[in-house]
Structure to design on (280 residues):
């Protein structure tokens, strides 16, 4: 990606190196978080339990603004690019884009959705409108999931921003309404549609990033490799040796790639309505 001329977002909260005090999750809690990460369980559910078991607090205030280190600069510029793209898109539809905050952390973090663990991967918390990522996930993306490249890293942020767009446009209410009254199978099916829509929105951002000349040859292949690597079927096969489609929460590799490409090809959010189709 070519981000030299892209402004860096100041909506970054750097909690790296802050440390936490408290009981800690322990081996059992970390195991639960790992299972949640690989099987796509909603982070809010797991982290809220972890918070009740082992409440923590940060030891100092977070730094707000654009981090000075290379990776901090990179994610800040990617976030800035998503702000520019979605700001223009929503303005054309008569709406105003309210940017989310990107929180960088090490190991574990407190959010309005509960305690987060790096083993769970990046997540979006609709309650505080913040994206959370431990940048060590990018190392896992390259070594464990074999999806290297800066655009693969950018895709991860764009996907979580896609969830924020869902919050702004009302899609998140579908999942919130289903919890507590629908069966787990129905909640899973809604979750899959939510995740695939976020993939499509990441593609919409990629389309406009391309028109802004931020993409290099091969960038799209990197994002497709990442989407393939984190499909529910691929992760389940790796972790439990078998695939259980009814337990999917994010969609198969094929679905994730297809919906990302749909957004990437059109650049139109209206083409990302995963709730309007019977076949995903």
């Amino acid at each position: 990606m070519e981000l030299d001329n892209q402004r860096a977002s100041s909506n970054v909260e750097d909690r790296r190196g802050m440390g936490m005090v408290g009981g800690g999750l322990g081996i059992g809690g970390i195991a639960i978080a790992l299972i949640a990460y690989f099987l796509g369980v909603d982070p809010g559910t797991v982290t809220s339990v972890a918070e009740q078991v082992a409440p923590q607090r940060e030891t100092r205030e977070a730094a707000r603004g654009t981090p000075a280190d290379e990776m901090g600069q990179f994610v800040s510029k990617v976030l800035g690019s998503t702000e520019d793209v979605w700001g223009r898109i929503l303005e054309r539809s008569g709406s105003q884009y309210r940017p989310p905050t990107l929180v960088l952390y090490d190991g574990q973090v407190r959010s309005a959705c509960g305690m987060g663990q790096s083993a769970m991967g990046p997540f979006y918390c609709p309650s505080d409108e913040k994206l959370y990522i431990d940048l060590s996930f990018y190392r896992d993306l390259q070594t464990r999931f074999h999806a290297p490249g800066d655009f693969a890293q950018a895709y991860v942020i764009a996907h979580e921003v896609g969830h924020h767009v869902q919050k702004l446009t009302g899609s998140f209410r579908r999942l919130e309404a289903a919890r507590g009254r629908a069966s787990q199978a129905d909640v899973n099916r809604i979750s899959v549609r939510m995740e695939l829509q976020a993939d499509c929105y990441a593609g919409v951002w990629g389309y406009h990033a391309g028109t802004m000349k931020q993409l290099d040859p091969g960038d799209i292949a990197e994002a497709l490799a990442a989407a393939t690597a984190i499909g529910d079927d691929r992760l389940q096969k790796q972790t439990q040796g078998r695939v259980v489609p009814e337990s999917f929460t994010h969609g198969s590799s094929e679905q994730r790639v297809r919906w990302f490409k749909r957004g990437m090809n059109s650049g139109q959010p209206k083409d990302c309505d995963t709730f309007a189709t019977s076949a995903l």
